Amino acid sequence: MVFPSALKILVELDWGKTFDEISMGKLSYGLYVLVKTAAYWIVSVFALSLIGNAAIFLILQRADFFGELPWGGLALLIVLLLLGNDLWKRYSDILALDMLLMELRWFSFEFRRTEFKT
Predict the structure, then answer these.
(1) Cβ atoms within 10 A of the Cβ of 79, count?
(2) Among 22, 26, 79, 112, which is least packed, fewest CB within 10 Å?
(3) What angle do CA 27, 28, 31 make, to 5 degrees?
(4) Closest CA to 48 of 70, 19, 25
(5) Cβ–Cβ contacts within 10 Å for residue 77, how many?
(6) Is residue 26 over pLDDT 60?
(7) Which of 29-38, 51-60, 91-100 has the lowest mean pLDDT?
């Protein structure tokens, strides 16, 4: 019978460590999303300010360079439009990890409360 070996694995499982690893994974996944978005934004700000200031110089024949604020706002809008679906997917994945953690905590509580006859 396979059931007793699965039961043995569940009894020997370190539930606290498992919960900590899932929580750490959820946090790491969130940080990954923030770093990825920030990297896209920084590259976009640099590219837009370079192209925008060059266009202003060529069109107006003046060296009046705009600050980074208009380019930063435009870059943020572009990054959010480009990564919108990906950000929503990542957010859904983090929520799924949260739900998994809740279900595992409930299962762990019920499993510890139950007594098995051997």
Answers:
(1) 21
(2) 112
(3) 90
(4) 70
(5) 11
(6) yes
(7) 51-60
